[in-house]
Amino acid sequence: MHLRRRRENASSIPDQQLGGEVLAHRSRAAAADVVLPLSTAASRHARLSRRRARPRLHDRSRRAGGLAVTVTRLLLRTRAAAHIAAVVPAYNVARELPEVLRAMPALFTTIIVVDDASSDDTAAVAEHYSQIDPRVVVVRHEKNRGVGGAMISGFKHAIDAGADVVVKIDGDGQMPLWLVPELVQPLIDGTADYTKGNRFRDFQAIRAMPLVRRLGNVILSFLTKAATGYWNAFDPANGFLAIRCDVLSQIPLDKIDRGYFFETSMLSHLYLLGAVVKEIPMPARYAGETSSLSIAQVLHQFPPRLFWSLVRRLTMKNFVYDFNLESFHLATGLPLLLAGLVYGGYHWWWYTSRGLAAPVGTVVLSALLITLGTQLLISAVNLDLQAIPREPINTGPIVREDARPQTSELSPRTPST
Questions:
Q1: Are 273 and 393 spatial neighbours (Cβ–Cβ below 8 Å)?
Q2: Where do the domains of the chain lie?
Q3: What is the 3-state secondary structure (H, E, C) of 282-348?
Q4: Cα torsion for 315, 316, 321, 327, to the nearest 10°?
Q5: For 323-367, how does the pLDDT look when each residue is reduced to its tens digit (9 = 90+)?
Q6: DSSP-derived 3-state class of residue 89
Q7: Which tops the pLDDT comparison, 138 or 71?
Q8: 3-state SS class at 119
Q9: What is the enclosing helix (H) or strand (E) of 372?
Q10: Facing residues of 279 across strands?
Q11: Do the beta carbons of residue 374 and residue 344 sit within 8 Å?
């Protein structure tokens, strides 16, 4: 029977950097007259130490005769936990806020509660928990600024606090806090600039959503895709979101909408920056409360703002920042379509009011202008669909200088023979 042993990196790391368990295994290995290739281990460790990835130390001690094998791994991490801040816009949520603050994950290093001039005890509850949890910081508004205004105040405090990532957590207990790690991981890895939840990935979540919100989201989702340029995003009114602070600092926060249009306004500004947006599937939770989003608000506020967001995005993208094939299609297709509609509509009214049949040439010319303009606009939409941002604009993975060794022990197994 021949037992093959391998000990990597152990000989070249000073003893004070190793845990007691690793030293104990080293002593037992020495007592068993195990011969270690010191030069090989030293060169191996030298190569690994130059990498920015996670170098691993495997210290294996085996006993013959089918005895248990203990494997101890020492992970030398070059990345520490990121500074993640939670912003909690709170308006008349004194009843729900305690449960939200108690359930906050430990990964949050700062919890910014923004009391938006609540008329109940929301501010008192937040102040109480700031005495219990040192992470909690309370920001108070003298006048109500809306959810967007509360988030802007929270964003500014998070940037001033040196946060790497900011997460929006509603104070009414709707957010699935267990999904926060999944929400922030793409931001920490640098693969996304902005992440948000999507409640339309699960049929059960759709059924659990109140009818008003379901209808509003379905109607607005397509319009929001066109207005923001993120054709791959859905559920635009979802407030479960996170953003990198190095990207957030590039957004003119004073121009972000203060009301329910806040999330869509954020997407509009992110598109012009070229930020990558990633969605995380999530369930819908409403805690039995009545939706504050009414049909009247949807019909009165959203369509005009979506239209102007579309105009602003297309103008900035195609005629200010750049001029490309999409710009040409828009610049020619839209005038041709409008000319065909105006020309055809006018002559249809003129001849119809006099009881005359329109000449064939008039009809053909009008149809030609409308058809050509429509085709050019469809081509522009197709090009816009292909222009979704795909390369993150952040500074890369969040890296900290400190290294934190961790030791974990694997389950025993029978040595190979």
A1: yes
A2: 10-79+401-410, 84-296, 325-385
A3: CCCCCCCCCCCCCHHHHHHHHHHHHHHHHHHHHHHHHHHCCCCHHHHHHHHHHHHHHHHHHHHHHHH
A4: -20
A5: 999 999 999 999 999 999 999 999 999 999 999 999 999 999 999
A6: strand
A7: 138
A8: coil
A9: helix 360-385
A10: 196
A11: no
Give mean pLDDT, residues 232-237.
84
- Cα distance between residue 248 and residue 87, in whole Å: 13
Of 17-31, 34-48, 62-76, 357-371, where does mean pLDDT reach its minimum? Answer: 62-76
Note whether 57 and 138 are within 8 A (CB). Answer: no
The residue with tokens 């058809």 is 371
Distance CA 46, CA 209 (A): 56
Among 239, 245, 248, 263, which residue's Cα sits nearest to residue 109?
Answer: 245
User: Residue 281: beta bridge partners?
Assistant: 198
Residue 35 has pLDDT above 90, yes or no: no
Say if residue 208 is exposed, middle or buried (CB neighbours under 10 Å; 0-12, 13-18, 19+): middle
179 secondary structure, DSSP code = G
**Which strands form 277-281's sheet, in the order they lie side by side?**
136-140, 108-115, 84-90, 165-168, 241-244, 194-198, 277-281
Sorting pLDDT into bands at 50, 70 and 90, what band is 142?
Answer: very high
N-to-C CA span, the chain:
6
CA 343 – CA 336 distance, rounded (Å): 10
- Report phi then psi at 409, rounded to 5: -115, 130
Q: 84-296: which CATH number, 3.40.190.150, 3.40.50.2000, 3.40.910.10, 3.90.550.10?
A: 3.90.550.10
> Looking at the predicted structure, is the pLDDT value of residue 21 above 50?
no
d(CA 103, CA 106): 9
SS3 254: helix
Give the CA-trace dihedral at 330, 336, 340, 346, to 10 degrees. Answer: 100
